[in-house]
Fold this protein.
Amino acid sequence: MPDSKKELSPSKVLLFGTIIKNPILVQVIGLCPAVAASSSLTVALLLSFVTTVLLIICEVFASAVLKPLSSWFRVAVYMIMGLLFICPLMYILDEAGFAVVNNAGIYLPLMAANSVVALRCEKFAVKRNAFLSFYDALATGVGVSAVLILSGFVRELLGSGTVAGRAVFDFAPLPALTMPFGGFVVLGFSAAILKWFISAFLSEYSHDMPFKIKKAQKRRPQRVEEKAARPVLTAEKAVTPAAIKAEASDTAKAVIPDIPKGRESFADVLYNSMSADMFTAEDSFDDILAGISAESGGADNPPVTREDFSVSTDGNGDAPREEAERVIIPVDLDLVEEQEISRAIASGDEGGSAD
Amino acid sequence: MAVKTVIKPDRQERSFYFDMLAILVLPAVMAWYYYGGAALRLVAICMLTGTLSETAGAFFMRCPRCLRDCNSLFIGAATALMLPADFPPLAAAAGVAFAVLAVKMPFGGTDFSPFTPVAAGYSFMCLCWPDKIFSYPVLDTGTGYVKGSSLANMLSVNTSIRPNTINVFDILTGSVPGAAGVTCIIVLLGSAVCLAFVRRRALINSAGFVAACAVMALLFPRVYSENARLVSLLMELCSGLLMFSAVFIVTDPATSPERPLHRFIYGAFAGAVCMLLRYFGKFEEGVFFAVLMANAAWPPLQERLLRREKKRALRKKVKQRARASSARGREAAENA
Amino acid sequence: MSGFFNMIQAALFTIFVQNLVFNGGYGSSEAIRMSAKPKRFLPFSIMIAYFSTVTAVICRALDNIKEIGKQNEAVHSAVFGVVLVLIYIATALLLKITLAPNKKFLSTLGISAVNTLVYAVPLINRRAGYGYIESIGTGIGSGFAFIVALLLINAGLRMLESNKNIPRPFKGTPAMFLYVAMLSLAFAGFAGSPLFA
């Protein structure tokens, strides 16, 4: 979405919602109907209608009424609203004898729990007025619908040889495309085409699209300070196993941060590891990808590359050692081992035993 | 100080796929011997499709074309030889095009695809046309092709197979219904020998793969007879695309690890999953799904393996150093 | 013993044969987005397993009530959805009282509860005619299926991130979609296994 509230205008909201920040192809939300359910055009049309209307209802309602409520409670309200819209619709269509309800299977009620609704409401609607929320819902709905309909059309045509149930080919050219696997393939190529389109025709917005790779982050600053405070095994000291053990236990005490009593439980671990706000997550999936380096340990924990798996083929025995050098060193590695690594790297003789 | 020379193996060495393509001539000759021009026509169509797909992909995806490494030709030839001789050429071309355009090119080409393109292409065809891909012609009927039951099919339907059901000599020479270029076990063993001459390291993958399959075939036979385990071993290893995959697919350098032990584990993992798919999978042959699973599961698995190795090596080193310095300390104390 | 076996069988079915993420597409957006955050794999998967299992068991119990059992799909969907929401609210309130978590934690809890994967479990169980034991197996299996998906996608994302040779139009999301497509293709080998027929 546009960066600041001042820049927002209905036309910009529409442009961003449908193309620049397409919910499925760029933000990677609401994939379930696109991947699994939209294997035929009629089902895709039904799901598109349901998604758009649900988005409009939920976003406008969230913007107008739900702002005072807590975020965690609003999520439940969105699902209830989805159920209140979808289940009666399903009942009516079923009673009227529309086969499309059966074709959609359980994916139609699942739209009530679709992440695109909750995310758009939390990221946009509760922070803006009802007017802009309506436009955002419309734009997001159009963006989702465009992908669903395209996916449904392509997969039905190539997977079943029909369009909206009418035979186009006498045979099914590529039946596997009706499976979720086919959905991912179609989305992959659609996303590539969209990316090319933006860079070719909307180049002023193409800065939002590149595959950003965040610089690898260093370890937490306090950790560095703590490291500085660690007693270092000096050359003068006799390095006996007992000395190493004693020193390691001392430093381990120094490294472990103060933990309030009664909060060491598993629930605490759960609490700490999950205390990140999904709803303020990055707009595009590329931004999420950019966070992988940092999340997986930054410079101390580089991503696995093909080079990590390879060694020189020239028969030089040093290559595997170099490879071992790049192995991810977990943060919880014993202190003594960490010191050994740094010392060995400094003296340049580490490789010998790594392989 | 000597100046280090940077060697770029992919540029200066002969392509791995060129060697593989040359070795594929052996099964191709057997395919021609058993199924005549139809098999070779399929091979030609698939190779042409591979080349055209690579050229078109390079143009539309704006990525460098690398026809010189023969990978596209290899994908085409290997795919064609794993298909029944009467397989529809258009369907085969679609499988090859999928392998090149959806599995190889979008990830940056031959050396950068995280999945084996041949395996993905064949799996794609399995899902698209399962009835055609596992429907094999009987040899030499004189009046065209008649459908026959392959060894893998016999095993999958739990038919009571006895040693006299099929002649062992027929199995080894490939005189049984099956895919065009994969039935002749003797030729495949010959291919493995050729591979041993040119790319010895690649055979470690094959060894792990075949060993895992053999162990599982011995432990869990699908054959009911007096020497069930031995018959099971023979039938499982000689049926389907197992041996062909062991020589030509599991050895793919782009997706396999480099260390010998890791290569063996990688091959064994693929073999174990392959047998599990044979036992519990939907299709009579699951080797390509197994290769895809090994491709996907290997990076996290290898990461853990390397981490463990590193930890173990460091612990060993710390102990050694501690021992050495305590000895020095004792010496100093004695001197003092 | 046979009950335990049935539970394991249902769990294995959910993890491999009908891997909910790859073969069903359920919760795929949550799996892909979450796979970039390895530190949250385990807690998120545990939450998913918890919500799936509890919802599946309660929904199975409700199915035994004649008035609900004889209703059509729409009513069932509504009832199951309301059950899921109530379980989520009850869990959140319980955590608020006992652990006093912050808003962010509760928001993430919401994502792990209100998603297509968790909501699909009771609906799939009903269609498959599963009993209590199998429902528990499916619930636990959904958590395992999710973590398997997270691990595999995460490894792929890290590979793709470090791959500088990907053609420009495919960099980022398109390559990721194709990678997940290949994972889905690999899992399709187990789909339709006669063992679980």
